[in-house]
Amino acid sequence: MEARFYQKKDDRKVQCQLCPDNCILSEGQRGACRVRKNINGILIAENYGLASAAHTDPIEKKPLYHFYPGKPILSLGTAGCNLHCVFCQNWEISQSTVDELTLYTLSPDDAVKKALQINGNIGIAYTYNEPVIWYEYVYDTAMLAHERGLKNVMVSNGYVHREPLEKIMPLIDAFSIDLKAFSETFYKKYTKSKLHPVLEALKIIRAYNKHLEITNLVIPGLNDREDEFRKMIGWIAEELGTESILHISRYFPAWKLHNPPTPTETLKRFYRLAKEKLSYVYLGNVATLETGQDTVCPQCGSTLIKRSGYYTEITGLDEKGNCKQCGKHVMDYV
Ligand code: SF4
What we know:
This protein is of the alpha/beta class. It folds into three domains: 6-45, no CATH class; 50-290, Aldolase class I (TIM Barrel, Alpha-Beta Barrel); 294-334, no CATH class. It is built from eight helices and 18 strands. An eight-stranded mixed β-sheet has the order 7-8-10-11-12-13-14-15. The chain has a three-stranded antiparallel β-sheet with strand order 1-2-3, with no helix packed on it. It has a three-stranded antiparallel β-sheet with strand order 16-17-18, with no helix packed on it. Helix 7 links the parallel strand 13 (211-218) and strand 14. Helix 2 (108-117) crosses helix 3. The chain starts with 5 loop residues before the first strand and ends in a 20-residue tail after the last strand. 45% of the residues are buried. The structure holds iron/sulfur cluster. Residues 16, 18-19, 21-23, 31-33, 36, 82, 133 line the site of iron/sulfur cluster.
Protein backbone atom coordinates (compact mmCIF):
# COMPACT_ATOMS: atom_id res chain seq x y z
CA MET A 1 0.00 0.00 0.00
CA GLU A 2 1.38 3.42 -0.97
CA ALA A 3 1.83 5.60 2.09
CA ARG A 4 0.10 8.92 2.62
CA PHE A 5 1.89 12.10 3.66
CA TYR A 6 5.18 12.04 1.80
CA GLN A 7 7.03 13.99 -0.88
CA LYS A 8 9.07 12.73 -3.80
CA LYS A 9 12.58 14.19 -3.98
CA ASP A 10 15.44 14.08 -6.49
CA ASP A 11 17.24 10.78 -7.17
CA ARG A 12 14.11 8.75 -6.33
CA LYS A 13 14.39 9.76 -2.70
CA VAL A 14 11.27 10.37 -0.64
CA GLN A 15 10.57 12.37 2.50
CA CYS A 16 7.95 11.02 4.88
CA GLN A 17 5.83 13.70 6.52
CA LEU A 18 3.74 11.55 8.84
CA CYS A 19 5.69 12.15 12.03
CA PRO A 20 8.23 14.74 13.19
CA ASP A 21 11.16 12.46 12.33
CA ASN A 22 10.65 13.60 8.69
CA CYS A 23 12.79 10.71 7.38
CA ILE A 24 14.45 11.21 4.00
CA LEU A 25 14.82 7.78 2.43
CA SER A 26 16.84 6.56 -0.52
CA GLU A 27 15.61 3.61 -2.56
CA GLY A 28 15.41 0.46 -0.42
CA GLN A 29 15.66 2.36 2.88
CA ARG A 30 13.19 2.12 5.73
CA GLY A 31 12.23 4.96 8.05
CA ALA A 32 13.09 5.06 11.73
CA CYS A 33 9.74 3.34 12.40
CA ARG A 34 10.99 0.32 10.38
CA VAL A 35 7.72 -0.15 8.51
CA ARG A 36 7.67 2.61 5.88
CA LYS A 37 10.02 1.87 3.01
CA ASN A 38 11.12 3.56 -0.19
CA ILE A 39 10.48 1.01 -2.95
CA ASN A 40 11.31 2.31 -6.44
CA GLY A 41 10.84 5.92 -5.38
CA ILE A 42 7.44 5.31 -3.76
CA LEU A 43 6.90 5.29 0.00
CA ILE A 44 5.20 2.03 0.99
CA ALA A 45 3.39 1.30 4.25
CA GLU A 46 4.66 -2.27 4.61
CA ASN A 47 2.47 -3.14 7.60
CA TYR A 48 -0.87 -2.36 5.92
CA GLY A 49 -3.32 -5.16 6.77
CA LEU A 50 -0.74 -7.09 8.82
CA ALA A 51 -1.55 -7.69 12.49
CA SER A 52 0.71 -8.96 15.25
CA ALA A 53 -2.17 -9.28 17.71
CA ALA A 54 -5.97 -9.10 17.82
CA HIS A 55 -7.29 -9.57 21.35
CA THR A 56 -10.42 -8.60 23.22
CA ASP A 57 -9.38 -6.43 26.17
CA PRO A 58 -11.27 -4.52 28.83
CA ILE A 59 -11.25 -0.83 27.89
CA GLU A 60 -9.53 -0.19 31.25
CA LYS A 61 -6.41 -1.86 29.83
CA LYS A 62 -5.82 0.93 27.28
CA PRO A 63 -6.02 2.66 29.87
CA LEU A 64 -9.34 4.48 29.45
CA TYR A 65 -11.38 4.85 32.65
CA HIS A 66 -13.98 7.38 31.48
CA PHE A 67 -14.92 5.78 28.15
CA TYR A 68 -17.55 3.03 28.37
CA PRO A 69 -16.21 1.69 31.70
CA GLY A 70 -16.24 -2.09 32.02
CA LYS A 71 -16.80 -2.74 28.30
CA PRO A 72 -14.63 -4.92 26.04
CA ILE A 73 -12.86 -3.63 22.93
CA LEU A 74 -11.16 -5.49 20.08
CA SER A 75 -7.50 -4.47 20.26
CA LEU A 76 -5.22 -4.61 17.23
CA GLY A 77 -1.47 -4.16 16.84
CA THR A 78 1.13 -4.55 14.10
CA ALA A 79 4.93 -4.06 13.86
CA GLY A 80 7.08 -0.94 14.27
CA CYS A 81 7.21 2.34 16.17
CA ASN A 82 8.54 5.81 15.50
CA LEU A 83 9.91 6.00 19.05
CA HIS A 84 12.65 3.83 20.53
CA CYS A 85 12.01 3.97 24.27
CA VAL A 86 14.68 2.04 26.15
CA PHE A 87 11.96 0.92 28.59
CA CYS A 88 9.44 -0.24 25.94
CA GLN A 89 7.14 -2.95 27.31
CA ASN A 90 6.27 -4.19 23.83
CA TRP A 91 9.69 -3.95 22.21
CA GLU A 92 9.41 -7.33 20.49
CA ILE A 93 6.77 -5.93 18.13
CA SER A 94 7.55 -2.20 18.29
CA GLN A 95 11.21 -2.52 17.33
CA SER A 96 10.73 -5.06 14.52
CA THR A 97 10.22 -4.91 10.79
CA VAL A 98 7.39 -6.85 9.16
CA ASP A 99 9.95 -9.50 8.07
CA GLU A 100 11.10 -10.17 11.61
CA LEU A 101 7.69 -11.07 13.04
CA THR A 102 5.00 -13.62 12.35
CA LEU A 103 2.15 -11.38 11.25
CA TYR A 104 -1.18 -12.39 9.86
CA THR A 105 -3.36 -10.76 7.27
CA LEU A 106 -6.35 -8.86 8.60
CA SER A 107 -8.10 -6.63 6.08
CA PRO A 108 -10.09 -3.63 7.37
CA ASP A 109 -13.26 -5.48 6.44
CA ASP A 110 -12.20 -8.61 8.37
CA ALA A 111 -11.21 -6.52 11.40
CA VAL A 112 -14.65 -4.92 11.51
CA LYS A 113 -16.40 -8.27 11.03
CA LYS A 114 -14.33 -9.67 13.91
CA ALA A 115 -15.24 -6.69 16.10
CA LEU A 116 -18.94 -7.15 15.38
CA GLN A 117 -18.82 -10.82 16.45
CA ILE A 118 -17.61 -10.00 19.98
CA ASN A 119 -20.37 -9.86 22.56
CA GLY A 120 -20.76 -6.36 24.03
CA ASN A 121 -17.77 -5.00 22.11
CA ILE A 122 -17.74 -1.20 21.76
CA GLY A 123 -15.31 -1.03 18.84
CA ILE A 124 -11.66 -1.24 17.87
CA ALA A 125 -8.56 -0.03 19.70
CA TYR A 126 -5.36 0.50 17.72
CA THR A 127 -2.79 -0.31 20.36
CA TYR A 128 0.13 -2.56 21.51
CA ASN A 129 2.55 -0.74 19.17
CA GLU A 130 2.25 2.77 17.73
CA PRO A 131 -0.86 3.19 15.52
CA VAL A 132 0.44 6.38 13.87
CA ILE A 133 2.87 4.30 11.82
CA TRP A 134 -0.07 2.04 10.78
CA TYR A 135 -1.86 5.15 9.59
CA GLU A 136 -3.38 4.02 6.29
CA TYR A 137 -4.75 0.80 7.77
CA VAL A 138 -6.08 2.53 10.88
CA TYR A 139 -7.76 5.15 8.69
CA ASP A 140 -9.46 2.60 6.40
CA THR A 141 -10.51 0.33 9.27
CA ALA A 142 -11.75 3.18 11.45
CA MET A 143 -13.89 4.47 8.58
CA LEU A 144 -15.54 1.04 8.10
CA ALA A 145 -15.92 0.66 11.86
CA HIS A 146 -17.78 3.97 12.11
CA GLU A 147 -20.07 2.97 9.26
CA ARG A 148 -21.03 -0.11 11.31
CA GLY A 149 -21.63 1.87 14.50
CA LEU A 150 -18.39 0.92 16.27
CA LYS A 151 -16.09 3.29 18.19
CA ASN A 152 -12.39 3.80 17.44
CA VAL A 153 -9.67 4.27 20.04
CA MET A 154 -6.04 5.25 19.43
CA VAL A 155 -3.46 4.39 22.07
CA SER A 156 -0.55 6.51 20.93
CA ASN A 157 2.67 8.31 21.80
CA GLY A 158 1.21 11.43 20.14
CA TYR A 159 4.32 11.87 17.97
CA VAL A 160 2.60 12.87 14.75
CA HIS A 161 2.34 15.90 12.48
CA ARG A 162 -0.71 18.14 12.68
CA GLU A 163 -2.07 17.39 9.18
CA PRO A 164 -2.36 13.57 9.51
CA LEU A 165 -3.71 13.96 13.04
CA GLU A 166 -6.39 16.39 11.93
CA LYS A 167 -7.32 14.20 8.93
CA ILE A 168 -7.96 11.14 11.08
CA MET A 169 -9.62 13.08 13.91
CA PRO A 170 -13.25 12.64 12.73
CA LEU A 171 -12.78 8.86 12.82
CA ILE A 172 -11.30 8.56 16.31
CA ASP A 173 -13.60 8.71 19.33
CA ALA A 174 -11.05 8.45 22.11
CA PHE A 175 -7.32 8.89 22.54
CA SER A 176 -5.07 7.41 25.19
CA ILE A 177 -1.81 9.35 24.89
CA ASP A 178 1.50 8.67 26.63
CA LEU A 179 3.17 11.75 28.04
CA LYS A 180 6.44 10.10 28.90
CA ALA A 181 8.10 12.99 30.73
CA PHE A 182 8.12 16.77 30.76
CA SER A 183 11.66 17.18 29.50
CA GLU A 184 13.13 17.47 26.01
CA THR A 185 16.33 15.89 27.33
CA PHE A 186 14.41 12.81 28.47
CA TYR A 187 12.59 12.46 25.13
CA LYS A 188 15.83 12.82 23.17
CA LYS A 189 17.94 10.51 25.31
CA TYR A 190 15.49 7.73 26.16
CA THR A 191 12.96 7.73 23.31
CA LYS A 192 14.90 9.27 20.38
CA SER A 193 12.12 11.78 19.77
CA LYS A 194 10.95 15.20 20.94
CA LEU A 195 8.51 16.38 23.58
CA HIS A 196 7.23 19.50 21.82
CA PRO A 197 5.22 17.71 19.06
CA VAL A 198 3.54 15.51 21.69
CA LEU A 199 2.38 18.59 23.61
CA GLU A 200 1.08 20.07 20.34
CA ALA A 201 -0.82 16.84 19.55
CA LEU A 202 -2.41 16.90 23.02
CA LYS A 203 -3.57 20.48 22.47
CA ILE A 204 -4.99 19.60 19.03
CA ILE A 205 -6.92 16.62 20.44
CA ARG A 206 -8.29 18.83 23.22
CA ALA A 207 -9.23 21.56 20.72
CA TYR A 208 -11.25 18.99 18.75
CA ASN A 209 -13.04 18.08 21.98
CA LYS A 210 -12.21 14.38 21.64
CA HIS A 211 -12.18 12.08 24.62
CA LEU A 212 -8.62 12.13 25.97
CA GLU A 213 -6.83 10.34 28.77
CA ILE A 214 -3.11 10.77 29.45
CA THR A 215 -0.68 8.23 30.86
CA ASN A 216 2.61 9.09 32.53
CA LEU A 217 4.95 6.19 33.32
CA VAL A 218 7.11 7.14 36.29
CA ILE A 219 10.62 5.67 36.01
CA PRO A 220 12.98 5.90 39.01
CA GLY A 221 15.99 8.07 38.25
CA LEU A 222 14.79 9.05 34.78
CA ASN A 223 11.62 11.15 35.12
CA ASP A 224 10.73 11.09 38.81
CA ARG A 225 11.92 14.57 39.79
CA GLU A 226 9.18 16.31 41.74
CA ASP A 227 9.77 19.75 40.19
CA GLU A 228 9.47 18.30 36.67
CA PHE A 229 6.32 16.39 37.60
CA ARG A 230 4.78 19.53 39.10
CA LYS A 231 5.53 21.42 35.87
CA MET A 232 3.83 18.71 33.84
CA ILE A 233 0.73 18.79 36.03
CA GLY A 234 0.66 22.61 35.79
CA TRP A 235 0.88 22.42 32.00
CA ILE A 236 -1.92 19.82 31.78
CA ALA A 237 -4.18 21.88 34.07
CA GLU A 238 -3.53 25.11 32.19
CA GLU A 239 -3.49 23.88 28.58
CA LEU A 240 -5.88 20.91 28.71
CA GLY A 241 -8.04 21.75 31.71
CA THR A 242 -8.31 20.72 35.34
CA GLU A 243 -10.86 18.00 34.41
CA SER A 244 -8.20 16.18 32.37
CA ILE A 245 -7.80 12.51 33.17
CA LEU A 246 -4.32 11.37 34.17
CA HIS A 247 -3.03 7.83 34.77
CA ILE A 248 0.21 7.69 36.72
CA SER A 249 1.66 4.33 35.88
CA ARG A 250 4.19 2.12 37.62
CA TYR A 251 7.28 1.16 35.65
CA PHE A 252 8.74 -2.35 35.63
CA PRO A 253 12.10 -3.25 34.03
CA ALA A 254 11.78 -3.92 30.30
CA TRP A 255 13.94 -4.15 27.19
CA LYS A 256 17.15 -2.17 27.74
CA LEU A 257 16.28 -0.61 31.08
CA HIS A 258 16.94 -2.50 34.30
CA ASN A 259 16.22 0.18 36.93
CA PRO A 260 14.08 -1.22 39.77
CA PRO A 261 10.28 -0.81 39.63
CA THR A 262 8.82 2.52 40.77
CA PRO A 263 8.44 2.57 44.57
CA THR A 264 4.77 2.70 45.51
CA GLU A 265 5.60 5.61 47.85
CA THR A 266 6.66 7.71 44.83
CA LEU A 267 3.41 6.85 43.06
CA LYS A 268 1.31 7.84 46.07
CA ARG A 269 3.24 11.12 46.46
CA PHE A 270 2.80 11.97 42.78
CA TYR A 271 -0.87 11.03 43.03
CA ARG A 272 -1.34 13.58 45.83
CA LEU A 273 0.57 16.25 43.86
CA ALA A 274 -1.50 15.66 40.74
CA LYS A 275 -4.75 15.75 42.74
CA GLU A 276 -3.90 19.29 43.89
CA LYS A 277 -4.67 20.48 40.33
CA LEU A 278 -6.54 17.71 38.48
CA SER A 279 -9.94 16.21 39.26
CA TYR A 280 -9.35 12.72 37.87
CA VAL A 281 -6.07 11.00 38.70
CA TYR A 282 -5.47 7.24 38.73
CA LEU A 283 -2.60 4.91 39.58
CA GLY A 284 -1.87 2.16 37.06
CA ASN A 285 0.07 -1.14 37.19
CA VAL A 286 -0.50 -1.28 40.95
CA ALA A 287 -3.46 -3.58 41.52
CA THR A 288 -2.44 -4.01 45.17
CA LEU A 289 -2.88 -0.31 46.02
CA GLU A 290 -6.27 1.07 46.98
CA THR A 291 -5.23 4.64 46.22
CA GLY A 292 -6.11 5.91 42.76
CA GLN A 293 -8.30 3.03 41.54
CA ASP A 294 -11.89 4.23 41.95
CA THR A 295 -13.59 7.14 40.21
CA VAL A 296 -14.73 9.61 42.82
CA CYS A 297 -16.99 12.60 42.25
CA PRO A 298 -14.81 15.72 42.50
CA GLN A 299 -17.79 17.73 43.71
CA CYS A 300 -19.35 15.65 46.52
CA GLY A 301 -16.79 12.85 47.06
CA SER A 302 -19.17 9.94 46.26
CA THR A 303 -17.62 6.80 44.82
CA LEU A 304 -18.88 6.54 41.23
CA ILE A 305 -16.97 3.55 39.87
CA LYS A 306 -15.24 0.88 41.95
CA ARG A 307 -12.27 -0.90 40.41
CA SER A 308 -10.19 -3.88 41.35
CA GLY A 309 -7.66 -4.79 38.68
CA TYR A 310 -9.74 -4.76 35.49
CA TYR A 311 -12.95 -5.51 37.38
CA THR A 312 -15.24 -2.48 37.20
CA GLU A 313 -18.48 -1.78 39.01
CA ILE A 314 -20.48 1.37 38.27
CA THR A 315 -22.03 2.32 41.58
CA GLY A 316 -22.74 6.05 41.70
CA LEU A 317 -23.18 7.19 38.09
CA ASP A 318 -26.44 7.46 36.19
CA GLU A 319 -26.79 6.45 32.53
CA LYS A 320 -25.91 9.98 31.39
CA GLY A 321 -22.60 9.97 33.29
CA ASN A 322 -23.80 12.21 36.12
CA CYS A 323 -23.10 11.68 39.80
CA LYS A 324 -26.29 10.20 41.32
CA GLN A 325 -25.62 12.05 44.56
CA CYS A 326 -25.00 15.65 43.45
CA GLY A 327 -25.72 15.62 39.70
CA LYS A 328 -22.21 16.63 38.56
CA HIS A 329 -21.52 15.57 34.98
CA VAL A 330 -18.46 13.33 35.10
CA MET A 331 -18.27 11.46 31.78
CA ASP A 332 -19.93 11.45 28.36
CA TYR A 333 -19.60 7.74 27.58
CA VAL A 334 -21.13 5.23 29.99
S1 SF4 B 1 6.45 7.69 10.20
FE1 SF4 B 1 8.34 6.47 10.05
S2 SF4 B 1 9.21 6.94 8.05
FE2 SF4 B 1 7.68 8.52 8.51
S3 SF4 B 1 8.86 10.18 9.42
FE3 SF4 B 1 8.07 8.94 11.10
S4 SF4 B 1 9.70 7.43 11.54
FE4 SF4 B 1 10.16 8.33 9.53
